[in-house]
Amino acid sequence: MVKNLTKVGLGIVTSVGGFLEVGSIGTGLQAGATYRFSLLWAIVVGTICVAFLTEMTGRLAAVSKHTVVDAVRGRFGFPFHAWPFGAQVIVDLFVLASELGGAALAWQLATGISIRVWILPITFGIWLLLWYGTFDSIEQSVALLGLVTLSFAVAAWRLHPDWSDVARGLLPQRPQTDPTQHAYLAVAILGASISPSLVTFYSSGAVEEKWTPKDLLPNRIVAWIGMGFGSTVAMAVVIVAALVLAPRGIHADSYQQAAALLSVPLGRWGFTLFCASLFIGCVGAALELALDLSYIVAQTFGWDWGENKRPIEEARFALTYTIALALVMVPSLLGIDPLKLTMFSMAITVLALPLVVGPLMVVMNDKQYLKAHTNGFVTNAAVIAIVVVAFVLAMLALPLQWLGA
Amino acid sequence: MVAFVLVASACGRDPKVTYARLLERAASWSASVQFTAEMARARYVPRAFVHDVLSTSVNALATIRRQIQDDRDVDARSRTQTADLCWRLAALVEEADRARALPDDRALRDIEIRLRAAAQAARGLVPLETPW
């Protein structure tokens, strides 16, 4: 009982501390600054979907001892699996590049020294953590540090928003201007919330931690309560941006425009807390993404894998995150704006969702893998509906935003 | 799929909205510089950050100005006038950055108001009454 409670508590802390990263900060700032509370619904929808997905993948690992990648490859064969695998590698690389850019930008904001200077030591630091750390130590330490992101929730509370206005934002509404940009931001928020990497990372972690069917209840509680609390932090970003940036007419096209926003409710500490939140959130997500890339590549090709093993025991696993980290430094070294890269990465994430979630849904309804624990109707209907709506919205909004208006 | 994307983008493209967005982005940079100056006066943000915001805004405004000048869907007079506002805004910010000082809020606010009025006119929300 005590062990289970500790597990649930740690899981919730991990979900809250790890929820905010470059995608949720970037999209939340833009959404709040431009459309005030009217895109909060996208965070709610994204959170519902991601809670279902994490619960599902945890259940898959606990019951079948398979990761998502293992199960999809086994169920459909390698030629089919190559498609979701390819899509996820591309998305992970883009998002990892965004996270590294965000972490380096936090230092640029604090010191005025260019991200081109910071990107190398930060990437090296992340690589060292991966090389010497274990799964638990990385997950828990970064998540505990990630609790600094709660400063957004404190800031939102101190700004005394009109809660009825905030509540109205929980329902989708037609914007007064620029519906294309509104839809584009909704897609980006959904992409930031429903990350395919979370699906594969969570199941790999569960297999590494040797979950059993006894873990199903803690898994369910962590997925729903943890993600629920985590999403309130993401909503707080939108609320603070809506109350500080929107009235001043600041659109948050770059992090520089938004970095001082916590100073209004939190005074002298606000700027430091913003930089710390951005840095820790991005480093935490970068660690997860680099590991996720190694997990999916190793599991796809049948290599030894596991962050709890020493690099010498699974050299190709360690080599994968080493190569990935070296590759994703390039956009920051070329001077590509981290916020633009983030918005692009979040948008393509939504386009890749059906490829990753579709096969997973088939596996989750297969009694050979899940026995008596296959998905129920509500889970199937909710996840499929959200992914289809997000994909259709992306297909309509992205071309308009990128090529047209 | 490609055809759908091209048709969708062609139908969705509204030159006035594109132009208005450019002007709003320029106005947003003006507001950001004023906000940063306000926070710097209260000693809530470090000097390095102020310099970062000022230099980033100068670069962003130069890009916006080029985009306005290249926008052939807008009449030449409007383009010249709004591009000039962007240039004046960037010059004010650059001068302050070079002097390691904070820019003149009133001048920034004045240009911001003109840019926002031009953006609203471009969107057809209010008649343009020569805001410059």
Written as H for each helix and E for each strand, in order along the chain, the element string of chain A is HHHHHHHHHHHHHHHHHHHH
Label the structural class of chain A.
mainly alpha
- Estimated share of beta-strand residues of chain B: under 5%
Shape of chain A: globular
Largest interface: A-B, 33 and 41 residues
Description:
The complex is a heterodimer of chains A (405) and B (132). With 405 residues, chain A is mainly alpha-helical. Chain A has a single domain (2-403), classed as Amino acid/polyamine transporter I (Up-down Bundle), CATH 1.20.1740. Chain A has 20 helices and no strands. In chain A, helix 1 packs across helix 7 (135-145) and helix 8 (150-158) crosses helix 12. Chain B is built from five helices and no strands. Chain B has helices at residues 2-12, 15-41, 47-70, 76-98, 105-122. The radius of gyration of chain B is 17 Å and the shape is elongated. Residues 1-7 of chain B have low confidence and may be disordered. Chains A and B meet through helix 5, helix 15 and helix 20 of A and helix 1, helix 2 and helix 3 of B.
Give a nutshell description of this structure.
Chain A is mostly helical. Chain A has helices spanning 2-19, 22-35, 40-64, 68-76, 78-111, 115-132, 135-145, 150-158, 163-168, 179-193, 196-208, 216-244, 255-258, 263-266, 268-301, 315-328, 330-333, 338-364, 367-370, 377-403.
List the topology elements.
The complex is a heterodimer of chains A (405) and B (132).
Chain A: H1 2-19, H2 22-35, H3 40-64, H4 68-76, H5 78-111, H6 115-132, H7 135-145, H8 150-158, H9 163-168, H10 179-193, H11 196-208, H12 216-244, H13 255-258, H14 263-266, H15 268-301, H16 315-328, H17 330-333, H18 338-364, H19 367-370, H20 377-403
Chain B: H1 2-12, H2 15-41, H3 47-70, H4 76-98, H5 105-122
Helix pairs in contact in B: 2-3, 2-4, 2-5, 3-4, 4-5
